[in-house]
Design a protein that fits this description.
Oligomer: homotetramer
Strand order of the largest sheet of chain A: 5-6-7-8-10-9
Number of strands of chain A: 13
Helix content of chain A: 10-25%
Distance between the termini of chain A: 15 Å
Largest sheet of chain A: 6 strands, mixed
Largest interface: A-B, 42 and 42 residues
Bound molecules: fe (ii) ion
Structural class of chain A: alpha/beta
Shape of chain A: globular
Number of helices of chain A: 6
Chain lengths: 274, 274, 274, 274
C-alpha cells in the first residue's frame, strides 16, 4: 500500500500548494492513502471547516492536527461533524471530536490513523500519550481490525518521539512526528518493522520562522518585546512529507522515504515510487 | 573552501566511528576544515581530554560542545588548555575556556568558529545568544578578520534556530544546529548567502533514544520512575554531518548538503564533492 | 478534630527538629492527627525507611512525599511495606506503594489522606491530578467512607494549586500545597467549606536556598556552572506547618491557621488551639 | 524610614481597593515611601497610563511591573514619560522606559527602587537578573548614592528568589518577590541586614485563581480546552503587602512584617507601626 503523509500546512501559501499539487501526486504516484496535518492552515493558527473540506477535496483521506487544533473557534463544533478530522487522541474523555479513526484506502485496505500529542516541553495537561497509543492498539490490533496503522505523533522533544516509535514498533505501520515544522532525515524502519520519521516538516514558506513571517519572531528574540502579531509568511511554499510502502500481508513497512517539492529545500520523491 | 561539520558524537560507538572514518573523509573529499561536536562523547555525558585529543588527531580542527560540556569534571580544567576546544560562548565572562576562536584551514583561510547555546526549553540562565553572536561578528567581521565564519548553535527549539540563522544571514558562512541528535533535511542557503541546517544530527547508534540505550528512557516514559541509569547505546554508529562549500571570495556559502554514513539512515555524500 | 500538617522536612536539621518538637505538640495541642511531608528528609533528597519510621514514631500518622520520593533507591521497596507512607497518587497504575489511604485519628475519626502531584512546571508525565482527586473522592466521599479528607497537593504553580482547591471545595476538609518550601499566608476557608493553604513551607534551615546550603545554588545562578553538589543546610531549623480544626459533623473546616516554630520566621500557633 | 510595598493590583477590584485604602494608610501609618506593583491592574493584563496616574495620586511613589508590563499597548509609549513607572530592568539596552530609579521619600531619604524579572519557569530571553542587580548596586551603592535600596524581584521559582535575596544581602534594604499572587509568610531579615519576603501576594479577589475569575482557569485544568477568556474576578479585594522599617543610619532593615487588609485572608498590620 502506498501511503503519503504531508506535514503541517502553514497559512495560505502552504494550503494552496497542497491543494494544487496533491491531486497530481495521488494520480501520478498512484497513492492509496493520504494524510495531511492541518493545524496551522488558517493563517498559522488552527483550521476552518472550509479549509478542511478543501483539503479532503484535494485528495486527503484524513486531516490531523495538534496543539493548534482549537485556535479557530469553529473547530470545537465542526470537529464532531467529520470522521476524517482528527484532534489529538489524548485529550480527556468528553472532548469534542475524535483522536483516531478507521478508514478505507483506495486499495480497500482498512487504515487506522491516530493523532497523539507529546507532553515534553508542550502540554503537560494532556493524558499519557503512551497509554493512549496502547489503548488504540489494543482496540484494533494490526492485521486484525486494521491492515495498516499510522500515528501522527505531534511533539517537540526528539527523545519522546523516538521512544514513542520504539514503544509501538512492530505494532504499527508508521510513526511520523510533526510540530517542529522542520523535516528530519532520520527515516528508517525500526527493528520490529515500523517505519519511523521524527518530523515530516511543514508545507509552507521555508524563508520564515516555522512558516510565519520572520520579522516579528526575530524582533522578539532580539528586543524581547512584542511589536506586532505573528502572521503567516507568504512566499512560495515547499511541500514536505514522507512516503511509506506498507506490506499488504504484514501491515508493516517495506520502505520509507521523504517527499519534498518546492523552491527552498532539496526536492525528492520516494525512489520506490519514481 | 570545503568544510565538514559532524554532529554530536555519542558514546564509544559514536566517537570510534568518527575516529575511523574521518581521516579517510579528509583525504578523499579533500576537506579544508572539520568541526566535530563532542558534548556526548564520553558515555553520552561530556568529553574527556583524551577523547578530545583523539578527535583532533583524527582530523578535526575544532571540537564544539553544548549543554553537556561540564559533565566530565576534568573539562573545567582542560578546556583552558586547548584552543581547539570550544564551550558555548554565552556563558558569562570569567567562565573557563573559550566560546569562539580563529583557526587556519588547510587552504590557508582563516576560519572563525563559534559555539553558542540556545535558551528556549534549555538554559534560561545563559547570556543572550543573539547578543553573543553580534559581539563575535563585530569583533571579526566576515572577509575582514575571517575568511569564513561558522556557528554551531546548540539549541532545542526550531524557532530559535531559524531566527538565529536569519539573524546572522549574510554575515556568517554557515549556521548549523546541534542538540536534538536528529539530522534535519532543511539545508538551504538563506537569502543573504549563509548556509543553514537546523540540526546536524548525531554520530551514534540510531537504534536508540538519542544515542542512549533505549531501555531506560522508554521505561521512564512508561513507568514515570527511574529504574536504572542512562547508558550510551552500543550498536554500530551512523555518522551524521553536513558539508558546505564556502566561497573564497565572499566567505558566503555556495552549496550545502548532508553527509550520512552508516547502517541505519540513508547514506549520502554532498553531491558537489562526489 | 485537630489536624496538624508539617511541610517538607529538609535534611538532618529539619527532621531532627520535627522529631524533637512533634511529641510535645501532639500532647500540648491535643492533636488528633498529624501528617508530615518527608520528601527531602534524607539530605534533601528523598527519605529512607529509618527516617520514615522515626517520623511515625515521633507522632506522625502519615508521611507524604512528592517529586523527590524515589531519590533514595530503597523507597521503591519500603514504600510497599508501610500503609502510612504515601507517594503521589497520580503515578500510573502498577507503581509501587500507594497514593492515598484511610487512617484512624486519635479521636476515632476516619481520615482519608491523599498525596497528589501537580504538573505545571513540574512533571508532565504524571497522570491528571484533577482526575486522580476525582477518583479518590468518588471512592470515599466525605462523611460516607471518611470523616475527614486531606490532600497534600505537591506542586509549583500557584494557579494549579488554587484551581485544585476550588475543584475539591466542599468535598474535602483540607487542601495543603507543598513543594516550594516557602510558607504562604493565604490560608482561608473556601466557599464550600474546604480549608486551603497554597504552601505549608518546609521544616528546615531558612538561612538557605530551599533548605539546601545556599553556596552551590547561588554559585550556579551566578556562574551558570556546577562547582559542587547540593547539600542540605545545617543551621537550626524552623518548623512550618498548619493547623486545621475539622468539624466532626460535616467533615468540613471550621478554622485554619499556620504554625511556625523556630529561629528565622515569625513564630505562631493556631490561635484556636492556644 | 517606613516603607510599604503592595503586591500586584489585579483588575478593577484590586486597584480600587488600593486607591481607596492607600491615602488612609499613608497618613495613619505615617509612611515615608510606597511602592505598588501594577502589572495586572488593567483587567488582569498590564496597566494603562490612567491607572498608573491614579495609583500615584493615591499615594504610591513608584509603580513596578513584571511579565505583563506590555500587555496594554500604550505602556510602550507612556513608560517613557513617567519616572515613577518601572518595567523590569533586565530587558536589553534600548528597551523603552526604565528599570530603576532614584526617588525622594517623604522624610527626604533617597530611595533607589529597581524592578527585576526572574528567568526560571518564566522568561529565559531576559538578561541575567543577578548581573542586572550587580550593575545597579555598583552604580548607586547603599549609603553612597542611596539611603535605601529596594528590589521588586518578579519571579516564579522560590529558589531563584531566595538566591537573589542572598546575592544582594547587606547591599540592599529590602528584596520583595512578586508574581505568584500569593503572599508568603517567610519575611525575615537576612544575615547581612536585608529584609526579605518571597512574595508580597496580590491586591485582588482571593476567591479566584490568582485574581482572575476561577471559572475559565478551572475549566482549562479539567477539560484542557479553552472555553472563554480569562477575566479578572470581581469580588471584594484583599490588599496584600509588606512593611519595612529601614534604618536611616545604615540603610539596612530593622523590621519587616506583612500588611493584609480585606475579607478573605487574615488581616494584619506591621506590629511595629501599630
Ligand atoms: Fe504545526
Ligand atoms: Fe504544533
Ligand atoms: Fe548532544
Ligand atoms: Fe545537547
Ligand atoms: Fe520538597
Ligand atoms: Fe518537591
Ligand atoms: Fe502579577
Ligand atoms: Fe507576573
Amino acid at each position: 500500500m502506498r501511503l503519503l503523509f504531508l506535514g503541517d500546512m502553514v497559512g495560505k501559501t502552504g494550503r494552496t500548494a497542497v491543494w494544487e499539487r496533491l491531486p497530481g501526486l495521488v494520480s501520478d504516484l498512484r497513492l492509496d492513502f493520504v494524510i495531511v496535518n492541518g493545524e496551522n492552515a488558517a493563517g498559522g493558527f488552527g483550521i476552518t471547516e472550509e479549509i478542511f473540506l478543501e483539503t479532503i477535496n484535494a485528495g486527503a483521506d484524513v486531516v490531523t492536527t495538534g496543539n493548534h487544533v482549537w485556535d479557530q473557534k469553529e473547530a470545537v463544533v465542526f470537529c464532531g461533524r467529520h470522521e476524517q478530522f482528527l484532534r489529538p487522541a489524548n485529550y480527556p474523555a468528553g472532548t469534542p471530536g475524535r483522536g483516531s479513526g478507521l478508514y478505507f484506502a483506495r486499495n480497500g485496505a482498512r487504515v487506522l490513523v491516530a493523532n497523539i500529542m507529546g507532553r515534553v516541553f508542550m502540554h503537560p495537561e494532556l493524558d499519557d500519550p503512551f497509554k493512549a497509543a496502547e489503548a488504540i492498539l489494543e482496540a484494533a490490533p494490526l492485521k486484525e481490525q486494521a491492515d495498516a496503522i499510522v500515528f501522527d505523533f505531534h511533539a517537540e522533544a526528539t527523545s519522546e518521539k523516538q521512544c514513542f516509535g520504539h514503544f509501538v514498533d512492530g505494532r504499527a505501520s508508521f510513526v511520523v512526528g510533526t510540530h517542529t515544522h522542520v523535516p528530519t532525515a532520520d527515516h528508517q524502519i525500526l527493528n520490529g518493522g515500523t517505519a519511523y520519521l521524527s518530523d515530516a516538516g511543514m508545507c509552507g514558506d521555508y524563508d520564515s520562522s516555522l512558516g510565519m513571517d520572520k520579522e516579528e519572531p526575530l524582533n522578539r528574540f532580539i528586543s524581547k518585546m512584542p511589536k506586532g502579531r505573528f502572521e503567516a509568511a507568504s512566499g512560495p511554499a515547499t511541500i514536505c512529507g514522507v512516503g511509506v510502502e506498507i506490506s499488504d500481508r504484514t501491515g508493516l513497512a517495506e520502505a520509507i522515504a521523504p517527499l519534498r517539492l518546492g523552491p527552498r529545500l532539496s526536492e525528492t520523491i520516494p525512489p520506490f515510487w519514481a
